[in-house]
DNA sequence: GTCGAATTTGACTTTTACGTAAATGTCGTG
DNA sequence: CACGACATTTACGTAAAAGTCAAATTCGAC
């Protein structure tokens, strides 16, 4: 495991712009260390970026992604805080389950659409 | 099955604004009929709206949703078109499968996060 | 050390997906 | 027919999430 990645290495690996990475830093989503003024991304930053992009692909906003990321940080020490956090985790899970239902429904509708296309092809006497 | 829904009926049912529905019409996503200048939404429009909102929750843009919606319209008659459409369906399915992977990974990380919270609670001697 | 490529900051711009306000139209009820 | 409750159109506004550009630094290869 490498110790550091440069900004361009990450932009190439994940196909995002440097502007985007700096934007995420401004927003407090990642915290690369500095050598001089240059950003150095540790494996942890890289992993965080992965999680951020996954969140984006799922349609979460930056703020929602921030919420999810904070969940992964240090679990709080106090009992009340812990219980509250478990509750927040459950909320996020419910959102994801809704997305899963949406996703399965859309997939199944696409299946139907394809079937009807294939049927039409058969009607037209095309050997599939 | 009702023949028509008014715009406000749909806004209430799906918790969207009238502006949003008019915007979707401007974008060509839905096509309610008119009585005078007033929009009348048929069950088909309502169903389309459902699909649109599902797409939104999955993080698809208006343009991507438009693409998906067009898939559900009349399958084309010509063989070449049909094959092309089947290909486009497969592309969309691949996007959805990627989203599903993202979703499962995020869910499983949330599971881990919750477990570590529960563990901490047990350490603190809290009877769950 | 120096030269070019990469990086940084900062400011301004763009796109998407609506929000909001103003002026006007329509319809059912008393 | 007048009133209130919705609807419509037009136009401008806005927040989020970057893109773009310029000018100044900084790095790394020679």
Write the layout of secondary structure elements.
The structure is a homodimer of 128-residue chains.
Chain A: H1 7-14, H2 18-26, E1 33-35, E2 38-40, H3 43-57, H4 62-72, H5 79-123
The structure holds a DNA duplex (30 and 30 nucleotides).
Fold and architecture overview:
- The structure is a homodimer of 128-residue chains.
- Chain A has 128 residues and is mostly helical.
- Chain A has two domains: 1-57, Multidrug-efflux Transporter Regulator, Chain: A, Domain 2 (Orthogonal Bundle); 59-128.
- The first copy, chain A, is built from five helices and two strands, in the order H-H-E-E-H-H-H.
- Chain A has a two-stranded antiparallel sheet.
- In chain A, helix 3 (43-57) packs across helix 4 (62-72).
- The mean pLDDT of chain A is 92.
- The interface between A and B is large, with 42 and 42 residues.
- Chain A binds a DNA duplex (30 and 30 nucleotides) through helix 2.
């Amino acid at each position: 495991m490498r110790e550091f990645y440069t900004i361009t290495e990450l932009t190439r690996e994940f196909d995002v712009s440097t502007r985007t990475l700096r934007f995420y830093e401004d927003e407090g989503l990642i915290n690369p260390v500095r050598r001089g003024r240059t950003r150095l991304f540790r494996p942890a930053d890289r992993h965080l970026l992965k999680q951020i992009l996954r969140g984006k692909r799922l349609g979460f906003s930056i703020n929602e992604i921030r919420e999810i990321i904070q969940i992964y940080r240090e679990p709080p020490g106090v009992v009340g805080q812990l219980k509250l956090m478990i509750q927040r985790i459950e909320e996020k899970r419910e959102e994801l389950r809704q997305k899963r239902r949406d996703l399965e429904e859309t997939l199944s509708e696409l299946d139907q659409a394809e079937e009807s296309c294939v049927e039409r092809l058969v009607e037209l006497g095309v050997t599939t």
